[in-house]
Amino acid sequence: MKSTHTPVLIKEVVDALHLRSGMTVVDATFGGGGHSKEILKRIRPGGTLIALDQDEMAFESCKDLKRENEENARMMCVRESFSQIRNILGQMHMSEVDAVIADLGLSSDQIENRERGFSFQVDAKLDMRMDQRKTMTAERIVNDFSQEMLEEIFRKYGEERYARKIAEGIVTARKRKSLTSTMELVAVIERSVPERYKHQRIHFATRSFQSLRIAVNKEDTSLEIFLQEALTTVRRGGRLAVITFHSGEDRTVKQFFRANAGGCICPKEVPVCQCEGKRRLAILTKKPVRPTEAEIAQNPRSRSAKLRVAEKV
Hints:
Rossmann fold, DNA polymerase, domain 1
């Protein structure tokens, strides 16, 4: 299956991971495989790449890449969420790896697939599942969740300023007819926001669709689990790199890196420090690495990408 996806910050990722032959690396979000291809080139000979993705289409693309590289590098494809990284490595009898990369953006393959419902620019079913083995969909959320729950989703995951109006609009619209398509939802959002909001640089439905996708896939919880699990699997001196595409994700990664870069990281409810205040990470990117103007011109979808990198100490 040929991927149309263009990986973001590819040179920056490869440099940040400090890749060398013989390394064992986890690409925790295979997607279109762009990062994996470059990683494979740099860990030969003797290297191992473990690629994870819960998306069936990405998993099939991963298997294609594996077949192409069977003679040059060891590669394993696993259809599973990146939040399961430690369990997956445990099943492979691996305790540590040299580097982990996670790109939290949607691939172009997912966005452009009409059946997936990720895009507000084509008419499709309101699906938005990363893992189509799951049962929760965007259609279920917009038709079954209360107005208060919808407002919270839009406000929390999209920082949508018109969260209440959009939630009200959805509840009103679904009383007449269930919302089943992306274009029906776009029409409701359009009716719910002020005219001036429809002519911003970012499309007026962007934040709402982003919010629903995060809620459908429980991306916030999965990211928090992944960061904790990835930290335990990267060896001392190994590196963890994460690419985010919106402020909520970036904030989560930044706070996790900072929390583990010094001092006690025990929960507030623990009266006595159990972690002994050990420093576990050295932050290598004081500010997130952003795409160059040249990359943005070539790949406009990269414009909001932010790369943060830390080394385990």
